[in-house]
Design brief:
283 residues; Hypothetical Protein Tm841, Chain: A,domain 3; globular; 37% helix; alpha/beta; single chain; Rossmann fold
């Protein structure tokens, strides 16, 4: 179709930094962060710092976006003159958001396709960013879809958590053992497997060693690529995030772009403070 205008839709659990979403005109559907007293739109009505500060008082839950928010967002996209929508969403193995949006696509006011990144956080968001960059460059729609699918296949994230407590509480533990020896301070390095479920790829003793191991895994994943995009996500751990960014950039000449940013409140609920995520997308 000539003169197509393609909208990219993602969810707040994909952790696209707000400034990048604004710059690339990415439409973000907020998940819900639920306290006993009320619920908040993720990243809109509550931030991750607020979640962390309140964890000792109450650990909230998360839930799917409001149906009305999705309906309103699809209508907004139509009103802004877009002719197609490409949804790039966090793993269906970790959230029902993908299925929610996929079902809504049937009744979307304009043609809509939805991709499951089988990833979480910025591991999902980097593929949404790639799709939006292509859309802004006026790349034909079918090519945007094909290249975004390729980006999804070439994206990997490695997480280190200070504790598995919140992941266990939220029921998102996946194939990660919640019994890993806390007495010995053994920490898993977590990624998403081919089904988009959390799994352990390595273990290390203590935070320093686990961060070092996650850097090694990221470097190993990126070593054959001629160009990579690097993103470091953190849960109230900006100093660690910047240190890791500098270390990887100094060792990996193929880095063409770098993002550093906080995780969404919804992801923070399940991971707690201290999280570091290293994401590599092979271009």
């Amino acid at each position: 179709m000539i003169n197509e205008k393609v909208a990219v839709l993602t969810d707040s659990g994909s952790d696209v930094p707000a400034e990048i979403a604004a710059k690339l005109h990415i439409f973000v559907l907020p998940l819900q962060v639920n306290y006993k007293a009320r619920s908040f739109r993720d990243g809109v009505e509550i931030d991750a710092q607020t979640v962390y500060e309140g964890l000792e008082t109450e650990v909230p839950t998360t839930s799917l976006p409001l149906g009305s928010d999705l309906t309103d967002l699809l209508e907004k996209i139509k009103q802004e003159g877009y002719t197609r929508i490409l949804g790039v969403l966090l793993s269906s193995g970790l959230s029902g958001t993908y299925n929610m949006v996929r079902l809504a696509a049937v009744d979307s006011p304009i043609p809509m396709e939805v991709l499951d990144t089988k990833n979480i956080g910025i591991g999902s968001g980097m593929s949404a960013i790639k799709a939006a960059e292509l859309a802004n460059a006026k790349v034909p729609y079918e090519q945007i879809v094909a290249l975004t699918k390729k980006a999804i296949e070439n994206t990997k994230i490695f997480f280190v958590l200070s504790t598995l407590e919140y992941l266990k509480r939220g029921g998102r533990i996946g194939k990660v053992s919640a019994m890993i020896g806390s007495a010995f301070d053994i920490k898993p390095i977590i990624t998403c497997n081919e089904e988009g479920i959390y799994t352990t790829v390595a273990k290390a003793r203590g935070r320093k060693q686990s961060l070092r191991k996650s850097v090694e895994l990221a470097l190993e994943y990126a070593k054959e690529a001629s160009s990579v995009t690097l993103s470091i996500a953190h849960g109230n751990a900006l100093a660690d995030a910047n240190e890791i960014k500098d270390e990887i950039v100094s060792q990996l000449r193929s880095v063409s772009n770098v993002f550093v940013g906080p995780v969404s409140p919804a992801l923070g609920v399940h991971t707690g403070p201290g999280l570091i995520g290293i994401c590599v997308q092979k271009d």
